[in-house]
Design brief:
By secondary structure, this protein is mainly alpha-helical. The protein has seven helices and no strands.
Length: 115
């Protein structure tokens, strides 16, 4: 998600950033919080954080909306549950990532309009 977001939104993130995010895949390796969500949250942070995210309401609001919309659309944020419901042996988690990317794009469009 972060790699695609980097390309699509011209975030100009470098290789070290992707290495930092590597552990979030597969629900942080224990099938908990979906890695597609973690990547999406990282994209929101890169787009909407000026200095420090905890001081900036927009990134918090956008993140909350993204996660809630993801949960509403896919009925869960849990990696194991999402894999059981959507994972395909050939496509792997692509169906979840694609749905998450569409939700992320909608969230970004909304918050960019407010700028």
């Amino acid at each position: 998600m972060l790699l695609g977001g980097n390309e699509y939104y011209n975030l100009n993130l470098k290789g070290e950033t992707f290495k930092i995010m590597a552990g979030f895949g597969g629900g942080a390796g224990v099938e908990e919080f979906c890695g597609a969500i973690s990547g999406g949250v990282a994209v929101l942070g890169a787009l909407f954080t000026v200095e420090r995210g905890y001081d900036e309401g927009e990134v918090k609001e956008a993140t909350k909306e993204f996660v809630e919309s993801f949960r509403e659309e896919l009925s869960s944020t849990n990696c194991k549950t999402l894999k059981n419901n959507f994972r395909d042996e050939k496509l792997k988690c692509s169906p979840v990532v694609e749905k998450g990317a569409a939700i992320l794009e909608g969230t970004i469009e909304k918050y960019r309009e407010q700028e």
